[in-house]
Specification:
By secondary structure, this protein is mainly α. It has one domain: Four Helix Bundle (Hemerythrin (Met), subunit A). Helix content is 73%, strand content 0%. It contains 6 helices and no strands. Helix 3 packs across helix 4.
């Protein structure tokens, strides 16, 4: 199998995992900003949002390894990796649009908070906008990755 074929398969597997994540907790993804949420629900939503961005970053990391020679080697490599996906590189065009990059940056920022804060410090009013954007963002991720994958087989 060619490198582009392997990369395409890896992207498909990760997207399928993300589909499973999104399908597993529809009741959490349906929560609105004005809803009352319990501490357990806040913790569950936080874990879901963390996993959501981690799965997307796994795809970007695989693209970077395969086409860019590896992820950026900086202290802020998570941010640099996301930013690089919205820019062309020598072996590829942009993977995602600048608009999607900006949306995903919010999820990356939340993941950083999730990893470095106690869960009892998480606030629903700050998480609710991400919950509302999770499914639309995932739809854009799938669409833009599908367009990108087509360029691999040209």
């Amino acid at each position: 199998m060619s490198e582009s074929g392997k990369l395409t398969k890896q992207i498909q597997v990760e997207l399928a995992q993300l589909e499973s994540l999104m399908a597993r907790h529809p009741q959490l993804l349906a929560k609105r900003a004005e809803d009352q949420v319990s501490p357990v629900e806040i913790d569950a939503v936080a874990a879901l949002l963390h996993s959501f961005y981690t799965g997307i970053e796994n795809i970007f990391n695989r693209i970077s390894i395969t086409l860019d020679g590896g992820p950026p080697k900086t202290d802020n490599w998570h941010i640099a990796l996301l930013d690089s996906m919205a820019s062309p590189a020598p072996n590829r065009g942009p993977v995602i649009s600048e608009t999607l990059r900006a949306s995903l940056r919010q999820f990356l920022d939340f993941r950083h908070v999730f990893r470095h804060a106690y869960s009892f410090n998480l606030q629903w009013n700050k998480m609710a906008p991400l919950v509302a954007e999770c499914q639309p963002t995932f739809a854009r991720v799938k669409d833009e990755l599908a367009s990108f994958v087509k360029t691999l087989h040209v």
